[in-house]
Design brief:
By secondary structure, the chain is mainly alpha-helical. It has helices at 3-50, 55-64, 72-82, 88-100, 114-147, 152-166, 170-184, 196-225, 229-236, 241-278, 284-293, 297-325. The two termini are 33 Å apart.
Length: 333
């Protein structure tokens, strides 16, 4: 038997179970993702179905520009055209089968495909949400290195700052920044936009509370990691304290923050609704508010499902990041 054959025979019993475990894990995650999307679609359908107001009446009023009562004769053609007169279960089945075909329907208000509407407004919202996430991490890492494990006074200052910022409402932060930096100091435009200057304040508004929230989780793990034996081992090998903190302690302390990042994406996308309203910024936020008010079911459903899909996708990415930050986790998969 050649050396290559021996190596293959030795590797096969190890790689086969691992491949099976990976396949089972992937299948479980896909099934979980499908279940979450189904639950989101179903919940959205049920909530919008019980909202007060007749959809046919709202649709006719939008088309005519008049808010008046409609007769059954006026409503009948609209109910038949959009299937509003069908049983709820029939409407639900039509809705689900349409989603499976990738058909999100047509906006009742704008009379345009939902996919086109979302495609036009998604870029500003994603820029805002992902930019705020990046900014939060850029602020968290140096702040943790400066204040965590540096003595009681620095730790108290860092923890207090994180607690305060984590509890700040995004709406209040946005209004405060708008009044001080835009209205009084005139450093930024009052009305937000997609320009770099118009994006700064919305980014900071979303990033400040998130920085405090993630910082609290990272600080606690940083303090615990700083007391582990590997710190003494690294120092005994001649590595400086700053190097140990940055290369070893910080790497171990990032795991809780990375875990919460998946939640943060969903929070940022929902928070963007308020921020876009405060700064009069284009994006999915204004579209969603208008769609809910007018009971534009296809638009609301499309945006909610999109946010759910983004949440699922970012959590899959986080699973991969885990292995980069801490390869020991691979042995538990």
């Amino acid at each position: 038997m050649t050396g290559a054959t021996v190596a293959e025979a030795t590797a096969t019993p190890v790689s086969a179970p691992r491949a099976g475990a990976i396949a089972r894990s992937a299948a479980a995650r896909i099934a979980s993702a499908v279940f979450v999307l189904w639950g989101t679609a179903t919940g959205t359908f049920l909530v919008l179905s019980v909202l007060p107001g007749d959809r046919a009446t709202i649709l006719l009023n939008i088309r005519s520009g008049q808010t008046i009562e409609r007769t059954p004769e006026e409503l009948a053609p609209i109910n038949a055209e959009y299937g509003f007169d069908q049983p709820v279960l029939t409407q639900y089945w039509t809705y689900l089968t349409g989603l499976l075909r990738g058909d999100f329907g047509e906006s009742l208000q704008l009379q345009r495909p939902v996919v086109d509407i979302i495609g036009e407004q998604i870029a500003p919202t994603l820029t805002l949400a992902l930019g705020a996430l990046v900014l939060a991490w850029v602020l968290i890492i140096p702040w943790t290195l400066l204040t965590a494990g540096r003595g009681r006074r620095a730790a108290t200052l860092g923890s207090a700052a994180e607690t305060i910022t984590a509890g700040l409402p995004q709406y209040w932060v946005g209004i405060l920044l708008l009044i001080v930096l835009a209205v009084q100091l005139r450093w930024f435009p009052v009305l937000g936009g997609t320009t770099p200057a118009g994006t700064v304040l919305p980014l900071v508004t979303l990033a400040i509370p998130l920085t405090g929230f993630l910082g609290q989780a990272i600080r606690g793990e940083f303090d615990r990691a700083g007391r582990q034996p590997f710190v003494l081992t690294a120092r005994a090998r001649g590595m400086g304290l700053a190097g140990v903190r940055a290369r070893h302690v910080l790497r171990h302390s990032l795991i809780p923050g990375i875990t919460l990042t998946g939640w943060a994406v969903g929070s940022l996308l929902s928070g963007a609704v308020l921020v876009e309203t405060v700064f009069a910024r284009p994006g999915l936020g204004n579209v969603l508010v208008t769609a809910v008010t007018s009971k534009d079911f296809p638009v609301v459903s499309g945006i909610v499902i999109l946010i759910s899909f983004a949440y699922i996708l970012i959590n899959l990415v986080i699973d991969a990041v885990y292995l980069v930050v801490d390869p020991r986790l691979e042995s538990h998969r």
